[in-house]
Amino acid sequence: MTNRNEPFSPSGSSDSPHPQSSHSADLGQITLRSPAELADALPYLLGFYPTDSVVMIALHGERGRFGGRLRLGIPTTPQDWPAICDQLAECLIAGSRQRGHQITGVVLFLCQDPARDESGQQVMERLRPLAQRLRLACGALEAPIYEALCISEDTFWSYCCPDQRCCPPQGTPLVLPGTSAMAAAAAYAGIQVRGSLRQMEDRLAPLSAPRAPEQEQALDEAATALVPKMLGDADRATVRGKTLNVAGQVLERFKKAEPVTGCSAADDRDDHLLQHDEAAEIILGIQDRATRDRAAEWMEGPEAAPALRLWRALARRCVGAYADHAAAPLTLAGWVAWSLGDEPEARVALSRALHADPDYVFARLLHQACNEGIDPEPLRRCLREAQAGRSADSAVLSAVREELRRLAGKDNKTRRPTGDTPTTGERTVQRKPVPQPPRARDARAVRESGTRSGGDGAPPAHHAAGTQGTQSPSTDGVPTVPQQRRRIRCLQPGKGSRPATRRGAGETRGPAGKPRARRRSGPRDVNGRD
C-alpha cells in the first residue's frame, strides 16, 4: 500500500463500539468518532461518491489507520454473493499482508440508490445478507469488520451499531456536503470530489439516439475504406499518418474552443466540434498499436487537457457493433487523466476499457500501475523513449516491473507473508468478463507488420492489479480480416484464470464473523473480480 493513494492517514481506537479514525494531512489530524462521520468521509477517501458499490477500507495498527481501499459494483445475483465475498475479503486482506501491513479491521460501505417503488430502508434490508456474508468472510481471515454502513437516498444505516440513539431504524440523513470538518480538511488539502461514480461513467458512455445510428454508419463506411489498407504493407504507414493528422486537427479545434461551465455542457460542446467521419477515422486508426502509441504522447503540456477531452469524445462515439473499439480511446483517456494527476477518473476510464476488452494489454498495465501507486513519470519517460522503436506496451511493461521491484525492495525491509495479489491504495476490482457474442469473438485485427501478440513483451502472468487474474498464452499470428462491422484492434493474449480456493464446509466461525481457533495450512490464492 502506498502513501500516494492515501490522501489522509486515519487512525482510531478499538476501545469504542465504532472505530475512531483520524486523518493526518499537513493540517494535523481529524478524528472520525461515529458512523455519521465515517459515511461523510467516504467520498473524500475515494475522490468521488460511489454508486451501486461495495467499498471496503482496511484499518492498520492499534489506532486503526486507514489503508487500502477496494471497490466493486454490487453483484445483482444474490447467489453469487458468497463466492464474491470470499474473494473480496482475500483480495483486500491478503494483498495488504503481502505488503507487510497487518490489517486489524475493516470498514464496509454498501452504496446503492433505491430502484423504482423501493425505499432506502428496503435497500438496506435487501443488502443485509451481503453485509453479513462479508463480515463472515473478513472475520474468517482474522480481520473483523468494525463498522458496516448502507448508504442510500442520502441516508445511512449501520449494520453493526445497536444503539438507536445514533443509528435509528429509519436511518440517519447524511450531513450537507461541504459542512463537515472532513470537508473543510479536504478543501484545505486541495482534495476534490469529482461527483458521483455514475456521473463519471456517463461521460464515457456511448451516445444514444438520434446520433448513434449516424455514427455507426460512419464507422461502417470508414471500416470498408480503411481495413484493407491497414492490413496491407503498402498503405499502412499512410493510414497511420492520416489518422494522426486528423486527430491533430481536432485537437487544435478543441484547444481553441470557448470554455463552458459544467461537465455536461463541456461534453456537448466537444461532441459538436467532432464530426462523425472524423471520429470514425480516428477510432479505427488508433486500433493500430503503433498509431495508438504515437497518440499516447499527448500526455503532458498544453496538449494533455484537450487530448483528454478528445479521448472522452471518441469513447462516446464507439456505438452499436463498435462498442468494443472503445478500449483504445478509454485507455488513452485513463492514461492522460492519470498523467495529469486525476487518479479517480483514470481508474474509471481504465476499468471501462477492461470491461470493453478484458485482454487489452495497455489498459491492464496502466490499471496495475495506477492501483500500485506507481508515479506516472517513469512511464512517461518510457513512452518518450518508445519513439525510438519500442511499443508503448513494452515500454510501460518495463517501467511497471522496474517500479514494482523498487517498491518490493522497500517493502522487504519489513517481514511480510507471501501472497499472490498486490495491495493497492484503492483497488477497482474487475468482474469476470461476460462471454462475447460471435461478432466480438471473431473481430481480431490490425497490428504492425510482422508482429506477433507476444513480440513486444508479454504482460505479467497475473492480471492488472485488481482485475481477474489471467494467463498470457501466445497466439499464432493475425487472423483473417474482419468484415465491415467487426472490431479492429491489436491482438492481445488470451485469458485463463485460477479459481479462488474455498474453505472447507466444516469450518466453524464465531459470532459476527470472528473465527474460532483453527489451524491454517498457508496462504490461499486470490483472484479479484469487478
UniProtKB/TrEMBL annotation:
Ranges of Low complexity composition bias in the record: 7-24
InterPro entries hit by this protein: DUF4192
Region entry Disordered, spans: 1-26, 405-530
Chain intervals with Polar residues compositional bias: 467-483
Compositional bias (Basic and acidic residues): 405-418, 439-450
A Pfam cross-reference name: DUF4192
Protein name (Swiss-Prot/TrEMBL): DUF4192 domain-containing protein
Organism: Streptomyces zagrosensis
